[in-house]
Design a protein that fits this description.
This is Transcription termination factor MTERF5, chloroplastic. By secondary structure, the chain is an all-alpha fold. The chain has helices at residues 54-74, 79-87, 90-103, 105-109, 116-134, 138-143, 160-170, 179-189, 199-207, 211-220, 229-242, 250-256, 265-278, 286-292, 301-313, 318-327, 336-349, 354-360, 369-382, 387-396, 405-416, 425-428, 437-451, 457-462, 465-481; strands at residues 6-7, 12-13, 28-32, 38-41. β3 (28-32) and β4 (38-41) form a beta hairpin. α1 crosses α2 (79-87), α1 packs across α5 (116-134) and α8 runs antiparallel to α10.
């Protein structure tokens, strides 16, 4: 794709050239003569957009809205501000759909629906160029399409945050449920001429998905209401069942990630699975992996590759990478540069073997450094432990930082102080914090105290009931013989 644009002193001109063949056919050109947008499209051959079914157009609009919402949030808008902008941007959404049809003309001619990834890949670069071109007034550009705002309205010396706040303040509050969602909900609620619900809704209900659950999914992801039964929903469901996913789990999976039904099996889902299997992800574990984190199959290949490359960079072996992805597939959802790498650097500063921690407790890397990790570290420092002690504790028990400081660590620490063990016992056995205080720690310690014997902390907690009582018996007999 070839992108080119230019800006004059008196006129703003933006043009986007898309090359779909060696002749470099001009598909779309936008001109912004100071205060106005104009849109024209030239096609290499005849193509009538009216042949696109209305339900498909509605689904594409919902996909475009979802993409634009994510894009606006990347620009720094809050959820509420992004929602307000979307509600005022119908003409811009229509413009995005027009571009989509231009880019994927051949797909419509053969009657194939576009996947979610295809829609993203077609529109994301265009939105990025607009952001670079219009900067602080981008929101006005989107909301006022096709009338472009005057850049001179804003003081360029103002900080970006100030400009952004002023734009958000200009937008009226949104209704609790916008008209787009109401239309989507009506589509799955209204009875047809035969007095029945739409076929895809009947199919989902028969699958075990309650109607209220379907409505809740559509409130969060309206495009789901427009997915066709035979073209999208049914093939994905049958594919999951073939992988060994129990039929009873399908409603939960679709509730977690309805976007799965918008992904092409042949072009996206199956290639993604093949890619992961080549990395060593256990084929026999697909049902569990998808149930735990169905979003895994909706991520792009670059996103998957970036995470895998990071794991190798940290020192994980191929076997460890495959086990990590199988046991904790949601690690793919963490941003490498914003989440994984900073967390790795933080643990590295404590002297932790990062590769070992990633292999043993990858879920730890989804925690917030400021809200979760640092408070636990600071707590143990205040209790008299050194950085080296803490690093040893984490290396021996990676799940330590996944526990709530207030509800787990502190209560167990306070009870530990009553047990009479030296504090270094926790450095040797930090797994102490993984046992239930009421169901394991207190009852076991009460028995030991009652017998009047001394056991190592790990003997008190880690042994099975049979082994625990055997050790108690030996200790008691030895105590009597002495």
């Amino acid at each position: 794709m070839n992108l080119s644009y230019g800006v004059g002193v008196r006129d703003m001109v933006f043009s986007l050239r898309l090359s779909l063949n060696p002749q470099s056919v001009w598909l779309t050109q936008l001109s912004f003569p100071r205060r106005h947008f104009s849109c024209s499209a030239k096609y290499d051959g005849s193509f009538n957009l009216r042949v696109v079914p209305s339900n498909l157009l509605a689904a594409e609009k919902e996909e475009a809205k979802a993409l634009l919402t994510l894009f606006l949030k990347k620009q720094g808008l809050s959820n509420a501000a992004a929602s307000r902008t979307i509600n005022k941007s119908d003409l811009f959404i229509d413009h995005l759909i027009s571009r989509l049809h231009s880019i994927h003309k051949s797909r419509y001619l053969v009657g194939r629906e576009l996947t979610t990834l295809e829609i993203r890949e077609a529109l994301s670069p265009y939105l990025d160029v607009l952001a670079e071109e219009y900067g602080e007034i981008l929101i006005d550009v989107v909301e006022n399409f096709p009338s472009a705002p005057d850049k001179g309205r804003y003081d360029e010396s103002l900080p970006k945050a100030t400009v952004k706040e002023s734009l958000e303040t200009m937008s009226p509050p949104t209704a609790p449920l916008d008209s787009k969602k109401l239309k989507a909900l009506a589509r799955v609620s209204n009875l047809g001429p035969s007095g029945k619900l739409p076929p895809h809704i009947i199919y989902l209900v028969e699958l075990g998905m309650e109607l209220e659950t379907i409505k809740e999914v559509i409130r969060k992801f309206p495009a789901f209401a427009y997915y066709s039964l035979e073209g999208k929903i049914k093939p994905v469901v049958e594919f999951l069942i073939e992988l060994g996913v129990p039929k009873s789990d399908i409603p939960i999976i679709l509730t977690k990630r309805p976007q799965l039904c918008g992904i092409s099996l042949s072009e996206n889902l199956i290639p993604t699975m093949t890619f992961l299997e080549d990395l060593g992800v256990d084929k026999q574990q697909w049902a569990k992996v998808i149930y735990r984190f169905p979003a895994l199959l909706t991520y792009s290949r670059p996103k998957l590759t970036a995470t895998v490359d990071f794991l190798y960079e940290m020192g994980l072996s191929a076997e460890s990478v495959s086990k990590t992805l199988t046991r904790c597939p949601n690690i793919i959802s963490y941003s490498v540069e914003e989440k994984l790498r900073p967390t790795a650097e933080y643990f590295g500063s404590l002297g932790v073997d990062v590769a070992l921690l990633l292999a043993r407790a990858p879920q730890t890397f989804g925690l917030s450094i400021e809200a979760n990790l640092k408070p636990v570290t600071e707590f143990f420092l205040e209790m008299g432990y050194t950085i080296e002690d803490i690093g040893t504790m984490i290396s021996r028990y990676g799940a330590l930082y996944t526990f709530s400081l207030k509800e787990n660590v502190i209560p167990k620490w306070e009870f530990f102080l009553t047990m009479g063990y030296p504090r270094y016992e926790l450095v040797k056995f930090p797994q102490y914090f993984g046992y239930s205080l009421e169901e394991r720690i207190k009852p076991r310690y009460a028995i030991v105290k009652d017998r009047g014997v001394k056991l190592l902390l790990n003997q008190v907690l880690s042994l099975s009931d049979i082994e625990f009582h055997k050790v108690l018996k030996r200790k008691s007999e030895k105590l009597l013989s002495d």
